Structure formats: structure tokens, C-alpha cells
Amino acid sequence: MAKVGIIYNDIKPIACKVAEQLQQEMVSLGVDVYLSTGSGGILGYSEPGRPVCYVRIEDVIPKNFDENLDFAIVLGGDGTVLSALRQLAPKGIPALTVNTGHMGFLTEAYSDQLPLIIEDLLQGHYEIEERSMMTVKLLREDTLLWEALSLNELVVHREALTSMCHFEIQIGDHAPVDIAADGVILATPTGSTAYCLSAGGPVVTPDVPVLQLVPICPHSLASRALVFSDKQRVKIYPATPNRMMVVVDGNAGCYVLPEDHIEAERSSYNARFIRLKSPEFFRILREKLGWGLPHIAKPSTKDFD
């Protein structure tokens, strides 16, 4: 008997409705179905008075979601996808991401396509695309305070009404560098089309084994995005007396005090996306972000006849 998981955005009525209908249909086909909500992968924010309150990366896996699950179907927008992949990656469960939100940059299909593709899914007629993730840790000396799995990026930034921050950043065994900025972004190739893109970083295709560091509003003409091998571990030290925040994938984070530091490296877990046809990254860039579209009207040859 096939075993399938469904992770859905339980605050969106359309996602709840589709999840219920999908469960009923798959059960009628003899499939063993397990449901969970995307909220399980949203780790929340720790508080200054409770510095050691993290959830272990492996503890966000939903009940009954194990290696015997054939695949999972994720219903929601990009935020739900980011949360769900954090829940699925430690067990290597592939996910079909279905858009019931807005842009859906990370989604593969739309909810109205599900009746047409369920049979293909159950018969294994799909490809799997693996994408790298990061393990992010907040430490105070040798004590682990907080950790998370990241598909897109980590962002370290100042709190409201504080001055510009200084960061001391070490990449691998290279000499540390000092960056003065409102914050810094460390991103995977998947994250290069998220916050990094808005901050002026380059777009990186998902198959390139790199990370990129992008300063946010740097106070220097020399501070620019840096792309480097994802075999390098990155350490970020706050070089300022102000309290800061570290946010992972836009939905999980904690405070960073002056005595803390952040370590990030490529995770041993990969996000596994189900693709109904061969992945075509440039097509997604064009359809979702308008990359490569003509931006001026070209004269017709008829105008010269």
C-alpha cells in the first residue's frame, strides 16, 4: 500500500479544502494518507529571557512521516513550502509542491491540476530535483542556543531604531572581514531569487554548489555580494553592542546578543522536489520574475514597406 503525506497551510481555507478533498480521493484509491500542517516547521522566535529554547532540527518532523513515506504533497504558498521542506528533508521525503497561495515561485503545480496528476504520482512518473540547504546555529561560546534548517537564507539584521551594525565574518579558514551595514544575508542558490535578489545579489542556478553573502544597505562602496564554495563554513560575529536578530527563511528566528555568534554551513540534508517534467529554471525566472522578457517595443518590418 502506498503511503503519502499531506502538509497544508491550515490558516488558508482553500488549502484546508483541497487537503480534505485530496485525502478522501487518495484513501478511495487505497492509499495510506497522513496529514500535518505547515506550522510545525515554523520554529517561532526565542525571547531574550529564554535564550536556550530551540527546537532540534530533527524534532520538527511530523508524526508518521518517516522513510517509508513514498512522497508528500505540500499545499500552500512559498512560506508553506519553506516550512514543509524543513519538516521533510531530514527523512529524505520528496515533495510535490502545489500552489494555493500567490506567486508560488517554489511550487510545481496548481491545485486544479491534482486530479490529473495523482495517478502519475502514485505510479512514480516524475523526476526528483535535489537542492542544497543550510544548517544554521546560534552559539554562546560552546553552548548551542538555537538551530534551524534553511532552504533559502539566514538574515542577521539590526532591530528597529538602532544604529548601523558591524559584523565580523569569517569564511572557512580565510581571514575575517568587517562589514558595516544594516544587516547581512547568507543564501543558498535557491535563496538567490528571494531576499538576496531584492538586496542586489546575483541569481544562482540551483545546481551550483555555492553560498552567497550579501550586505544589506552597506556603508561602503566596496561591500558587494560575494559568491563562494558551499564547502566553507561561515561564522558571523556581531561587532556592535546592540542586540540583533537572526531570521531563517523569513519564518523562524531568535535574538543575537553581543556575546553570541552564528555558524552556518551546507547541511547534510537536501530538499527533494518532485518535478512532473524536467526542471527548467530559466522558464520559471521568466514566468515568475519576468527575466529575459523584451522591455522595449521592436519596430515591425511592415512599418518600412
List keywords for this structure.
305 residues, 5 helices, six-stranded antiparallel β-sheet, seven-stranded mixed β-sheet, Rossmann fold, 2 domains, Tumour Suppressor Smad4
Question: What does this protein look like?
Answer:
By secondary structure, the chain is α/β, with parallel strands linked by helices. The protein folds into 2 domains: 3-131 and 269-289, Probable inorganic polyphosphate/atp-NAD kinase, domain 1 (Rossmann fold); 133-268, Tumour Suppressor Smad4, CATH 2.60.200. The protein contains 5 helices and 18 strands. It has helices spanning 13-28, 78-88, 114-122, 195-198, 281-289; strands at 3-8, 32-37, 44-45, 71-76, 95-99, 109-110, 127-140, 143-150, 153-158, 165-171, 177-181, 183-187, 210-216, 226-229, 234-238, 244-248, 252-256, 261-275. A 7-stranded mixed β-sheet has the order 3-17-16-9-12-13-14, with no helix packed on it. Strands 8-7-18-15-10-11 form a 6-stranded antiparallel β-sheet, with helices on one face. It has a 5-stranded parallel β-sheet with strand order 2-1-4-5-6, sandwiched between helices. The longest helix is centred in the first third of the chain and has 16 residues, at 13-28. The model has no long low-confidence stretch (mean pLDDT 89).
